[in-house]
DNA sequence: TACGTAGCCCCACCGCGACT
DNA sequence: AGTCGCGGTGGGGCTACGTA
């Protein structure tokens, strides 16, 4: 790095790693962008620290910053070097010029190459692609990796994939036509290859023996105890051939087995190489399987053990305690590792593990590889290593939902491909494979949307809105009569904040009451009255101050009036809500021996109270249907379920002591 | 328990184009 | 010129999840 770069290094923001924008000097003499400091303060709230030296920043207030005065040397220097910034292509901090086409900063050495990419795009007369400027911008980073032909193929594949994924009628399937696919390898159908490599006569087998063999043969060669499906073999091809690939397949279609087949092949071959004295490679094959959540570690590990059934000792069993330093020993002993991605990222960070020492990284649920997700931070390290000339592991990425989680599917897919360094997208082909998949997996028989008539004005809602809430609001000078749910929610949140800042006790209390009532109305929209009332009474208990003001008393009287009113309504034996009736009806209709049901709801409270409601229902009791609830561990509420209770509920559900599961998570 | 990562839903807002 | 509908965007508020 030349001296210029070293100086500019100093102008980097500690947080965003770009050139300082509105620089602020912290007490520890480190510099940071104003916006970045605000982010730090907002996100860390209590434990704010300088990103460089970890000195506490607790006494900083967003409102109190003074910008560095213009005569400060950093500001002065920055204003002199307006043409200094990070080069968009090589990421070096140096003198740059904005590109005349896309106005992205380019350094002197990159600008020519960069301009070429625009020329190439202009040359493409292919009107089928119809890329917008935004799309071209997205594609820019990956363009430099690819030849023109590869780039076109890639776009075509991405386009087809997205179109198919969006237009598909059957939501359980994702298609990708072979013609436009970048899976450009062998065109020979798997079945038509007559010659089969005979494992019994030779102790070695090659790549071709796997990719061109019938399932039975692959089973024999890889010593599996099941027949892989033909599409699984086809989708394993890029991986077997040493290419990074994204395997896009619906849940339950055997993504994990595809990865396992690749891993097993490479593993067997590496063992042969280790044994053979003439072999160039002397190290054993190492792979790591990364999953986003803990529960998947066990699940995927079990799937791998099924594939490595003859050599399970190479697979590290899931370990839930701290590994840390011990990882180095484990690395020697085992060949296949399973981790949550966060854990693995931590190992890398702490230098317990070294990415370059792995031959294969399998990334489950790879659609998360985006923005600041831990998977992506690991991939950033991968890219850094790759660009510095290190040998990096190959990637096999698994997902069921690429291109669907973000607002712009195309953008998402391309980002995922770029982030994962994958140019191959493997998905089910229309025709034979599609039919096969349909036969071998459980697909929904039907989906139905049931409509429930809107409830006609409920006396309880009316009483709360028109009487109680209105009265409290008008005392505070709010007009909430015209606000709908969302607006009111936002309004109350803001007013509550303001009141806290101003230390306006009455307004804080009032907003507190209104928020509770509003929440109650939202819950009551879906849930049985008794559960909601129970929740409300518990919630209102927090407003019993020791020395109540006039306004406190007013609010309390109002809410007591309301609760009395509700008690009367309940004693008049109100009808069960239409929605809930329909739910019970549906459960009874669909119920058969040994079947299970899953009810998905929005909040934890929904889950818990719906469970109670269902378990109380006499019609369900008669049929011996009982429900359990499953929520996340979340933060410190009594409604959260700790991990062990989660598995307990799931166990009951599997065993069949509970046939219904009410769970959060949409 | 606190924190930081993420997604989803809803609404307000904006710009655009078609229509009156 | 004004109105309407549409689609995209951004913010607020909620959630789940893993880690320390």
UniProtKB/TrEMBL annotation:
<dbReference type="InterPro" id="IPR014001">
    <property type="entry name" value="Helicase_ATP-bd"/>
</dbReference>
<dbReference type="InterPro" id="IPR001841">
    <property type="entry name" value="Znf_RING"/>
</dbReference>
<feature type="domain" description="Helicase ATP-binding">
    <location>
        <begin position="236"/>
        <end position="420"/>
    </location>
</feature>
<dbReference type="Pfam" id="PF00097">
    <property type="entry name" value="zf-C3HC4"/>
</dbReference>
<dbReference type="InterPro" id="IPR018957">
    <property type="entry name" value="Znf_C3HC4_RING-type"/>
</dbReference>
<dbReference type="InterPro" id="IPR017907">
    <property type="entry name" value="Znf_RING_CS"/>
</dbReference>
<dbReference type="GO" id="GO:0003676">
    <property type="term" value="F:nucleic acid binding"/>
</dbReference>
<dbReference type="GO" id="GO:0005737">
    <property type="term" value="C:cytoplasm"/>
</dbReference>
<protein>
    <recommendedName>
        <fullName>RNA helicase</fullName>
    </recommendedName>
</protein>
<dbReference type="InterPro" id="IPR027417">
    <property type="entry name" value="P-loop_NTPase"/>
</dbReference>
<dbReference type="InterPro" id="IPR011545">
    <property type="entry name" value="DEAD/DEAH_box_helicase_dom"/>
</dbReference>
<dbReference type="InterPro" id="IPR051363">
    <property type="entry name" value="RLR_Helicase"/>
</dbReference>
<dbReference type="InterPro" id="IPR013083">
    <property type="entry name" value="Znf_RING/FYVE/PHD"/>
</dbReference>
<dbReference type="GO" id="GO:0005524">
    <property type="term" value="F:ATP binding"/>
</dbReference>
<keyword id="KW-0479">Metal-binding</keyword>
<feature type="domain" description="RING-type">
    <location>
        <begin position="13"/>
        <end position="54"/>
    </location>
</feature>
<keyword id="KW-0863">Zinc-finger</keyword>
<dbReference type="Pfam" id="PF00270">
    <property type="entry name" value="DEAD"/>
</dbReference>
<keyword id="KW-0862">Zinc</keyword>
<dbReference type="GO" id="GO:0008270">
    <property type="term" value="F:zinc ion binding"/>
</dbReference>
């Amino acid at each position: 790095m030349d001296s210029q770069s070293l100086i500019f290094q100093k102008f980097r923001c500690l947080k965003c790693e770009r050139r300082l924008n509105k620089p602020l000097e912290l007490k520890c003499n480190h510099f940071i962008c104003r916006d970045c400091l605000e982010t730090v303060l907002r996100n860390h709230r209590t434990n704010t620290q300088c990103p460089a030296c970890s000195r506490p920043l607790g006494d900083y207030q967003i409102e109190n910053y003074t910008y560095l005065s213009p005569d400060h040397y950093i500001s002065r220097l920055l204003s002199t070097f307006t043409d200094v910034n990070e080069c968009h292509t090589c990421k070096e901090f140096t003198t740059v010029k904005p590109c005349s086409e896309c106005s992205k900063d380019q350094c002197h050495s990159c600008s020519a190459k960069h301009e070429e990419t625009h020329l190439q795009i202009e040359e493409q007369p292919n009107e089928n692609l119809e890329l917008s400027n935004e799309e071209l911008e997205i594609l820019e980073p990956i363009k430099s990796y690819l030849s023109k032909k590869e780039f076109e193929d890639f776009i075509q594949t991405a386009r087809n994939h997205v179109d198919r994924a969006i237009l598909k009628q059957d939501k359980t399937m994702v298609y990708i036509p072979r013609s436009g696919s970048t899976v450009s390898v062998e065109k020979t159908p798997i079945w038509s290859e007559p010659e089969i490599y005979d494992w019994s006569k030779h102790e070695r087998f090659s790549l071709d023996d796997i990719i061109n063999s019938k399932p039975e043969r692959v089973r024999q060669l890889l010593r599996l105890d099941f027949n892989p499906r033909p599409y699984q073999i086809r989708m394993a091809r890029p991986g077997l051939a040493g290419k990074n690939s994204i395997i896009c397949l619906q849940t339950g279609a055997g993504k994990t087995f595809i990865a396992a087949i690749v891993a097993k092949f490479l593993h067997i071959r590496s063992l042969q190489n280790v044994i053979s004295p003439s072999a160039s490679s002397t190290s054993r094959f190492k792979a790591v399987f990364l999953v986003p959540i803990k529960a998947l570690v066990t699940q995927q590990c079990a799937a791998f053990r099924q594939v490595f059934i003859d050599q399970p000792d190479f697979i590290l069993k899931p370990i839930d305690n701290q590994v840390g330093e011990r990882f180095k020993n484990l690395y020697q002993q085992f060949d296949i590792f399973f981790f949550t991605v966060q854990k693995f990222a931590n190992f890398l960070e702490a230098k317990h593990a070294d990415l370059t020492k792995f031959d294969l990284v399998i990334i489950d649920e790879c659609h998360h590889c985006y923005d600041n997700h831990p998977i992506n931070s690991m991939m950033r390290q991968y890219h850094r290593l790759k660009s510095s000339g290190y040998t990096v592991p190959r990637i096999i990425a698994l997902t069921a939902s690429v291109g669907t989680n973000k607002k712009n599917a195309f953008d998402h897919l391309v980002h995922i491909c770029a982030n994962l360094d994958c140019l191959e997208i493997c998905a089910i082909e229309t025709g034979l494979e599609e039919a096969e998949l349909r036969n071998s997996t459980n697909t929904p028989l039907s989906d139905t949307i049931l409509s429930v008539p809107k409830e006609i004005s409920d006396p309880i809602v009316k009483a709360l809105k028109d009487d109680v809430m209105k009265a409290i609001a008008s005392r505070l000078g709010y007009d909430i009569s015209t606000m709908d749910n969302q607006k009111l929610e936002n309004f109350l949140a803001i007013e509550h904040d303001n009141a806290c800042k101003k230390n306006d006790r009455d307004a804080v209390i009032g907003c507190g009451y209104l928020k509770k009532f509003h929440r109650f109305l939202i819950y009551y929209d879906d849930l049985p009255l008794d559960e909601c009332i129970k929740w409300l009474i518990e919630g209102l208990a927090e407003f019993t101050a020791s020395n109540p003001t006039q306004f406190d008393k007013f609010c309390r009287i109002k809410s007591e009036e309301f609760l009395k009113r509700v008690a009367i309504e309940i004693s008049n034996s109100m009808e069960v809500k239409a929605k809930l009736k329909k739910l019970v009806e549906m459960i009874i209709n669909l119920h058969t021996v040994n079947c299970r049901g899953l009810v998905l709801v929005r909040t934890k409270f929904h889950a818990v109270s719906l469970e109670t409601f269902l378990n109380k229902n006499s019609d369900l009791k008669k049929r011996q249907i009982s429900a359990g609830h499953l929520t996340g561990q979340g933060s410190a509420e009594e409604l959260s379920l700790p991990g062990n209770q989660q598995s307990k509920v799931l166990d009951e559900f599997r065993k069949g002591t509970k046939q219904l599961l009410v769970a959060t998570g949409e």
